[in-house]
Known about the structure:
By secondary structure, the protein is an alpha+beta fold. The N and C termini lie far apart (49 Å). Helices cover 30% and strands 22% of the residues. It is globular and about 70 Å long.
Amino acid sequence: MKRTLVLVLVLLAVLAAAVYAGGKGEEQPAAEPAAAAAAGPRSGGTLTFGVYRPIPNLAYYQAYDASNNLTAVAIWDTVLRFNEKGEIIPGLAESWEVKGDDTIVLHLRDGVKFHDGTTMEAQDVVASLEFALNPDAKSPMAWMLDPIESLEAVDAKTVQIKTGAVVDVLNALATPVGGVSSQEAITKYGIGLGENPIGAGPFKLERWDRGSQVVLSRFEDYWEEGKPYLDKVVFKIILEEFTRLSSLRMGDLDIVYNLSFANVEQVEGNEGFNTNIFGTYIVYYLALNMKKEPFSDVRVRRALNYAIDRNAITRAVTRGYAEPAITDIAPEMAGSLAGVREPYPYDPDKAKELLRQAGYPNGFSMKLLVGSNSPDAETGVVLQEYYKKIGVEVELISEESSTLWNHLQAGNYEDAAMSFWYPDFPDAAGTLVPFCYSTNTPPDGCCNFSYYANPEVDALLDQAAAETDLERRAGLFQEVNEIIYEEAPRVWIYHIKEAMPASVKVEGLNPGPMFFFQHFLQDVWLAE
C-alpha cells in the first residue's frame, strides 16, 4: 500500500510537469560504430539476446507472443516477409502474382533447404499452411488463414491460393503462420514440431533449456548467400528487468528487449550502447466489458474516454516514447483517423455530465485488470487517479501479462482490462478484424474483448477483406474507425515506440514497426 501511494504521488507530480515538458522518443541516431564496422559485415561470434518471458513453444504456428516470435522467425522462414518499413517483400516465394480478385500465385525460390536436409517444394508450402489450419495444431493464428478457400501445388515451384481476401492472406503469409516446414517433418512430428522445429530459417535449434535459454546455431545451407553472419544466437530468459539491464551494462548480454521507458532513458546517450528506438503500430487501451452495466451505455464509455489526459499520461508514463491514440489504428497506418479526428480531449466536466445523463451522477465502482509490467502498472495507477476525479472508484487487479492475456482470451474479467496490441499486419485489418468483428469474441474468438457487435462494422470489414484496391480498402477502414470512435468500445491511451538497447558492437540491426514478425537476425553481425 505504501509503495502504491508513493508511486501515485510521483506519477502525479510528473504528470503536472509533463504538461509543460517537450516530448521525447524520436528515433535516435546510432552511436559511433566501432572502427571495424567500416569494413562491412563480419562473420562469426555469438549474439546473446535477453528476453523477458519464457519461450513456451518453437512451432511456427504458435509464434504469437513477443518472447517466442523473436526465436521463431530465426528458425522458420516464411513465404513472404515484412521489411523495416512494414512492407511485404519476397521470402521463400521470390515473387507472387494476384490474378483477378481471388487468386494468388506464388513462385518459390530454387534450392531452398530445410534443416533436415530436404529441398523445399510447393507441396511443403501447402502442407505447412494446411497444418497451421488443422485444429490439432491449436494455432492462435489460424484465423489469419481462414479466408483461404483452396491451396494447390501447381508444380514443384508454384503454389496457387484461392481466397476472397487477397490482401489479408498476403499479409498472413509474412507472419510466422506463413512459416514453411518440410512435409516430411510434419508427417514425422505433427504437433511435436514445437519440440523439433525443422524450418528453412538462418538458424537451427541446437539446445533448449526450458525456462533458461534457447541456443540456435548457424544453418550452413541457408538460402541467402553469405548469411547469417553470426555463428550462434543465444536467447537468455531473464524475467527481472533490472537483471536484464545490468547484464547488458556488464556485457553479459549484447541486446535486450522489453525495458521500461525509464530504463531506456538510462541507456540513451551512454557511450558503448545504442538504444535502437523505432516506431510501431502498438496500441495501449482499456477493453470495456459491454456485456455488463454500466459499460453497455455508450455515454459511460465516452465519459471514461473524456476523463483522461492522454498527452500528460503519454509524457509522464512513457517519457515521451509514445503518442496519444485516437483509436486502435496508429496515425501512420492507412485507414487511421489522423487528420480527421483528434484523440478524445481531456474534459472531466463533460465526463461527469455524461455520467449524470447515464444515471450515474455519483459515479460507480469498477474493477480494472492491469499487467504487472511497465508501463501497464504505472498507467493503471494514473488512470485510477483520473477516474476518481469523476467519481469512478477503480480497484486495480494486477497480473503478470501472460496470465492477464489468458484471462482475456477466456473471457474471464469483470469490468475492464488494460492491455496492448501488436497489430498482426501493417494494415488496419490486423487490428480491426480481431477487435471489432462480432464473431471474434471470447472464448471461441479472439480478440474482441469488449464484446462489441455492430452489423454495419461487420459489413464494412467484409467489404474491406474482399477489396484489392488499397485506397478503397483504406477508406472502408476509416469508416469503421469513425463508427468505433463514436461508440467507444475501448478507452484508447497511446501508441508506443519500442527499443532494443544493444552494445555498439551489434551491427546490422534494423527493426521496424512489424519487428515482432520481421526477419532481421540474419543481417546482424558483431564488430570486433
